[in-house]
Design brief:
266 residues, 7-stranded mixed β-sheet, alpha/beta, 21% strand, 3-stranded antiparallel β-sheet
């Protein structure tokens, strides 16, 4: 998460920062529509944490914080505490379609993003291309063993990695390669130090990232210091239907990656 020193901030600016990190709770509005009691249901889901001197905000809010700062005429000094990971030697052995290439080009200029595309559209193929482009140790987070097995197979196919160059935590395996590793969210959630486990990776890819709002999964990724983050999903509105989704090309919800995409090897 990003940290903002709250001592000396005007109350209105502090309230604005908290508002940026708050989401409308769909459960509240569903109960309200059905005329059910909302006494024990919060209107907003708060994605920030507070300490006496610090306000912790989701890392993806930095551009919005900068815009809010400009509106208040304040100054924002950013200290980047993320470490640069050692480079890895990988090469993409696939071929992106024109639409995939367009989405890939939109992502490379951003450190954080969510790629929304329907099943079979080639999300993992673009993720492989990003791994090769970033050239940093990468951790892939999945929510079930079958996905971990699929990633292991396709990492060999599209990046040419050997079995020893692909580590895995969970699904009966417990070994890190430090090149590209796969971990199940359930296993990492039970790890003694999830943030410390992720600390050595330069990029984290979260497959089926719409599961992350679950409290146990959110705690896994919240304080991880990786520089690059990529979420993959086909259903971004599953959990937060009242929250707008920004597409990679600015086309609007559901149009970042059209159905016609496909991935193939060279």
């Amino acid at each position: 998460m990003s940290q903002v020193e709250r001592i000396g901030l005007p109350p209105s600016l502090l309230a604005g920062l908290k508002h940026l990190a708050s989401l409308h709770n769909p459960d509240f509005y569903e109960k309200e529509l059905l005329r059910l009691s909302t006494h024990a249901t919060q209107r907003f889901v708060r994605c920030y944490r507070e300490e006496l001197d610090l306000l912790h905000l989701p890392r993806g809010l930095l551009p919005d914080v900068e815009q809010l700062r400009a509106e208040f005429g304040s100054r924002l000094d950013v200290v980047d505490g993320r470490a640069d990971a050692a480079p890895i030697d990988v090469a993409f052995q696939g071929l992106l379609s024109s639409v995939q290439q367009h989405a890939f080009d939109a992502f490379v200029s951003h450190h954080i993003g969510v790629l929304e595309a329907p099943p079979g559209a080639g999300k993992t193929v673009m993720a492989f291309a990003l791994i090769a482009y970033r050239r940093v140790p990468t951790l892939v987070l999945v929510d079930r063993k079958t996905l971990a097995d699929q990633w292991r197979e396709r990492l060999s196919e599209f990046l040419g990695l050997t079995k020893r160059e692909i580590g895995q935590l969970g699904g009966g395996r417990d070994r890190q390669s430090g090149i590209v590793d796969i971990a199940t969210l359930q296993t990492l959630a039970n790890h003694d130090d999830p943030a410390g486990f992720i600390a050595g990776y330069g990029m984290v890819i979260v497959d089926e990232c719409h599961h992350v709002p679950a409290v146990s999964f959110e705690e896994v990724v919240r304080d991880a210091p990786a520089r690059f983050w990529l979420g993959l999903t086909a259903t971004p509105l599953l959990v937060w239907p009242s929250t707008p989704i920004r597409s990679a090309d600015g086309a609007g919800p559901g149009r970042a990656v059209p159905q016609s995409m496909g991935g193939r090897r060279r």
